[in-house]
Amino acid sequence: MNKAVYTALASIGLAQFLKIPIKKIKTGKWDWGTFVETGGMPSSHSAGVASLATYVALKRGVSTIDFALSTVFGLIVMYDAQGIRRQTGELTLKVNQLDENIERLSGDQDKHFHDKKEQKLKEMLGHQPQEVLGGALFGLLTGTIGYLLTKKE
């Protein structure tokens, strides 16, 4: 692997780790499982692609094909993270509520059948725009630091 890939992967890992204390601040509880979850602040997808594009820009220059590829790829990933994947997550919320809504509409007493389901669909799939922006800014920072740390080599 090359240094740009190491920088991008480190950015993804660090962004995932940052979600843990951010969630603690929001909820008051430590949730180490957050490290392997999708969604949340900052977007690790955005951090990874932004750090890669930043590293490439500093190493090769903004007029190179390398930078163009990493930037366009990054923009597509960030658009997908906050657009399509977020919409899928919101649709999943509705599907998970469907059983309860059907019970209410039919006039039946809530038998809590939906509460006993063993597995619900995953609801946190995508990102809010501010989470994507947070990840992109974090990626700019980590991409710059990654470049500066490997500049002499």
Q: Runs with pLDDT <50, length 5+?
A: none
Give the overall average pLDDT.
83
What is the distance, rounded to the nearest whole angstrom, between the alpha carbons of the first and last residues? 15 Å
- Give the total of beta strands: 0
**Helical amount:** 55-70%
Structural class, judged by helices and strands? mainly alpha
What form results from the Cα inertia axes? elongated
Radius of gyration: 20 Å
Tally of individual domains? 2
Q: What percentage of the residues does DSSP assign to strands (E)?
A: under 5%
Taking the sheet with the most strands, its summary is: none
Summarize this, please?
This protein is mainly alpha-helical and 153 residues long. It folds into 2 domains: 1-83 and 127-153, no CATH class; 86-125, no CATH class. The chain has helices at 3-27, 44-60, 65-82, 84-106, 129-150.
Features:
153 residues, mainly alpha, 69% helix, DUF212, Divergent PAP2 family protein
Structural notes for this entry:
The protein has 153 residues and is mostly helical. It has 2 domains: 1-83 and 127-153, no CATH class; 86-125, no CATH class. It is built from 5 helices and no strands. Helix 2 packs antiparallel against helix 3 (65-82). The mean pLDDT is 83. This is Divergent PAP2 family protein. InterPro entries: DUF212.
Topology:
Blueprint: H1 3-27, H2 44-60, H3 65-82, H4 84-106, H5 129-150
Helix pairs in contact: 1-2, 1-5, 2-3, 2-5, 3-4
